[in-house]
Amino acid sequence: MLLHILKYKFLSFLKTTFDPRMVTAIRGIGSLLVFGGFGLVAYVGSYEMTRFIMEQTRIGLFLYHRFISMMLFVFFMAVNMGNIIVSYATLYKSAEVNFLFTKPVTFTQIFILKFLDNFLYSSSTLFLVAFMVLFGYGSYFGYPWYTFLGVLVGVLVPFMFLSACLAVLVLMSVMKVASRWGFRKVMVVIGSSYAAFVFLFFRFTNPIKLVNKVSMYYPNVDQYLVQFDPGFLKFLPNNWVADFLFFFAKGEPAMAMPFAATLLLVTAGMFGLCLFVAHRFYYRSWLVTFEVQASSNSVEAGRRIKRFDFRKESILPPQIESLLKKEYFTFFREPSQWIHLLLMAVLVVIFVLSVRNLNLGVRVTNIQAMTYLVLYAFGVFLSCSLALRFVFPSLSLEGTAFWSQRSSPLNLNKVYFLKFLIALALVMGLALLIAVASNIPFVALTERRPLLMYFGLFSAVWVSLSLVALNLGFGGYFSNFQEKNPIRIASSQGATLTFLLSLVYLITLVVIISVPLFRYFESLFLFLPFDFKIIVVPGTIFGMISAAVTGISVFIGMRSLQRDF
Amino acid sequence: MIELRHVTKKFGSFTAVDDLSLVIPDGEFFGFLGPNGAGKTTTIKMMAGLFSPTSGEIILSGFNTATQPIEAKMTVAYIPDQPFLYDKLTGREFMYFVGGLFKMRKKEIREKVEELIEHFEIGDWVDKRTEDYSQGMRQRTTIAAALIHEPKVMIIDEPMVGLDPKSAKIVRETLKQKSREGIVVFMSTHSLPVAEELCDRIGIINHGRLAFVGTRSDLAAYKQKFDGKFESVFLELTK
Description:
The structure holds 2 protein chains of 2 kinds. Chain A is mainly alpha-helical.
């Protein structure tokens, strides 16, 4: 039965992917070019970064792999939280599940189908990125060609799969408890627990302390200095992967294998546990969603006058008021929207708190310029993710009910720019917060010279404008009014393409600012005069590129609204 | 008044509507019939502004939908074949939302919403979010919302689908009443008895072209050529 359904799902996938129409072919070629380009950039970036860290900063194999472990931890948590939210939609709200429950298919089979669907759909781009990063990293350490595939299939995929299994287990537990405590309360508890876990992880692994301890062993920094790890670390899968890579890079594959075996065994066990829990609880927890929905949708609750209620008078013109209130209610009544926003806001707060008190003691040009670029890139990356998740789906989420706006006496430019402004307020607000926080340590380092802070603010404004325009415009171009799940829209092919374009934009910005930045730190640390003309040309190019991205994207987005509905 | 002038709609090489011309005066109840895929919904979507015609012109209440779309839409009530609503809004909120899009003042909306809730007997559940509505509840909410701004033209695609007998009766009577008040009603339907009962004039479309246009008396005369049944006429014209 399972194979029978999978066969038809695969056929449907093939038909959609290899649609012979010209438009699809052009889109396909475009995607291939962008994906290919991105893969290449990921490869070169990973190779060069590894080379730089190993040869220029010389921090040693152990420290480098501990940083990889930290990145893998963030990656694991991101995949995990993403899967919790996506799984809610695929396992509990999908029309396909409703259909399959009426057919002679077991609950476990339906669970496996939707779980795989969910995992493969939401992780395909991550596979590409992970593989190309691994390829770049492994090429530096001279991995034989066949080991790349082995590490991908035997280590990276199980690592991501384990994260997804854990996510589904958490979700099924949430659904079970939600019927008693209420969905919102449970989600707030889960969100707070995750935030606390991330906070504690970084508190106990403390990268700065680790650097100081490892430095004492210089030049023997390629040793396995496991005595510096806090005890709990050996139970975390990110550490198993990092230790596997460490021994592989050291040329000791026999030492690496136990870590891969542990990961594979734990992943298999976790999947088995998932199936067991699904067999017992999936159908029952699916029924709970109806209880939860019914309890949160009563006539009495609907009759109460709420904040921003449609019945309340407003000073705004009627069309603007209607559109704004519709946006507000459709967003805050959809759990997958506000929960995800809350999680991303928590991530931003963690980032801001960690960065604000960063101690940048060393007055070395290369280190400070690189630190600035990494922090800058990470800040823009957060904005890219935020825009992809919340701005890209915003037009598609009008859904099949969009007819009510399309057939009313409403200038569609109003709809477009209202969405643009709402998204801009969100993205720019967070981008400014990140820019201020990440520039505070550098202002302190440069004896209160405000130039970098001004640049941060200038950049935050332009980057937010461009990213909102790009995501809204391409979100309109690739709109899918049939899909109700915002996360599926944000992980569709069009969304991935848009995200890759955002990353190309990010890399371009990093390249543009790198030369004046190095010069600035150089002049500062070597007490040389800084020629401000150096920033005029890159600043102008920065502004022009951002303006072009904004203009072209707005044009594409507005044109998309003229299409037949 | 509704006027279609040589309207054509093509999707690639497929012609969905082919050189369609029609004039429907104020107060007339026009029934638009045809088999599946004949071009009914495409025609209606062009009139509602959801599709743009490949060629030809559509004039609603004297406004050209291509050059004066806002003015044209201001006079129109459109009811789609599928009553899609915003799941997270209640029926009442959807009606306020539509009222706002038609630039109505809050007081006007409030009065009209209360009147429509009572008229369509939807008060028991109009304050629940529409995600829990049945097809009939959605349909009644959509029709109520469409009437909120006192339209001059009503364009309706399959209004009786999913309605229980009582709701269908309310809708039939409402549409007939609106027609009597001078509003032009353009209704697509698959139900031949409904068309015969309500419509002043009937058009039958097949393969994107009008196969028949005539009043009820024209139809009655035409029926005599067959076995006296509308069904036989319809089947013959759409062969």
